[in-house]
Task: inverse folding
């Protein structure tokens, strides 16, 4: 039997525990996802999650959310280094006194589902030259409304403005993914079908983007090429057939979950005879998908891919297919508009 996600070892990248939902979000792992689960102790994480330059409490929050704090810190450093380009924020240095301190509010401009608030804090952490105070008004996975404060930060004004764009780039991007995923999850609510992501992610941001999918109530597919196998059309051509390709993967990597892609109904019986437990139906219509579900008759789980749209999601779900693979969650979702507003504290004091 192929191991369930709960039995698979954790990978450091994109770590999360499926029994710990993200603030009520219904996301998590799907079949053929090796991003993690289960009963590991802290040593299985590979690195002590506190062995980084972030505040230990923030590092713990990131680790509890299934993220590697060291990797998040690396992303934050890369974003800031790219923005400063070995220099300084010339506008901010010229206009803001060095000793000035301000409070800024990260505020939603649109309705949506938020993701990446602790990652935004990590960006601030690598920029701020002194300690900063945060007030958390929302959590990742929350549905938010326009004008809603998400996070308030008090620190040196120069540091806050220098970190602003990098923090917002990540926060808006991840919240956009979570919002798009939530739309699919809401559309599929009440069916037995779940939406899953793919590996069509931004280089260097896969763990964060897949985390955002979980915040939106979606499931993660495999995190990398190494934690699960997906036999696709080019593998089939190279191996000489879909069943032969499956046999080769199972022989070489017996403990790895295997999913097999088919694009014709007549390919189903040969792979079922080999014992495959997860089949990807590539570019099947809803009618063809319904026929495939009937032919398989519960002998394997089925995932639809291609020709999928939010408007047509319920039609596919009605066939009884287990998963919808939607690459657009991570490669085409628009951002959720979030801004940073400095408080006019002189006006507040005078009022």
Result:
């Amino acid at each position: 039997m192929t191991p369930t996600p709960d039995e698979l070892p954790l990978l450091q990248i994109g770590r999360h525990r499926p029994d710990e939902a993200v603030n009520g979000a219904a996301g998590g792992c799907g079949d053929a996802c090796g991003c993690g689960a289960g009963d590991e102790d802290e040593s299985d994480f590979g690195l002590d999650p506190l062995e980084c330059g972030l505040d230990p409490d923030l590092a713990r929050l990131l680790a509890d959310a299934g993220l590697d704090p060291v990797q998040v810190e690396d992303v934050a450093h890369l974003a800031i280094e790219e923005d400063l380009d070995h220099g300084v924020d010339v506008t901010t240095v010229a206009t803001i006194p060095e000793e000035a301190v301000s409070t800024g509010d990260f505020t939603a401009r649109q309705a949506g589902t938020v993701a990446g608030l602790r990652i935004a804090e990590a960006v601030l952490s690598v920029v701020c030259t002194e300690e900063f105070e945060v007030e958390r008004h929302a959590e990742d996975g929350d549905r938010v409304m326009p004008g809603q404060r998400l996070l308030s930060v008090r620190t040196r004004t120069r540091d806050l403005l220098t970190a602003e764009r990098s923090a917002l780039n990540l926060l808006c991007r991840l919240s956009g993914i979570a919002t798009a995923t939530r739309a699919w999850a809401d559309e599929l609510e009440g069916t037995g079908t779940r939406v899953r992501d793919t590996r069509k992610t931004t280089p260097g941001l896969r763990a964060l983007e897949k985390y955002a999918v979980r915040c939106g109530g979606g499931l993660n597919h495999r995190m990398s090429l190494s934690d699960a196998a997906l036999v696709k059309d080019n593998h089939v051509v190279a191996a000489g057939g879909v069943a032969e390709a499956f046999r080769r993967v199972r022989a070489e990597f017996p403990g790895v979950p295997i999913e097999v892609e088919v694009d014709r109904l007549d390919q189903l019986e040969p792979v079922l005879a080999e014992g495959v437990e997860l089949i990807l139906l590539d570019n099947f219509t809803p009618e063809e998908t319904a026929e495939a579900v009937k032919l398989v008759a519960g002998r394997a789980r089925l995932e639809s891919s291609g020709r999928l749209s939010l408007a047509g999601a319920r039609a596919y779900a009605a066939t009884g297919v287990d998963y919808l693979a939607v690459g657009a969650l991570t490669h085409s979702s628009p951002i959720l508009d979030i801004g940073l507003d400095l408080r006019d504290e002189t006006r507040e004091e005078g009022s």
In short: Residues 157-188 form the longest helix (32 residues). Residues 88 and 266 are 62 Å apart (CA to CA). The chain has a mean pLDDT of 88. DSSP finds 13 helices and 14 strands in the chain.
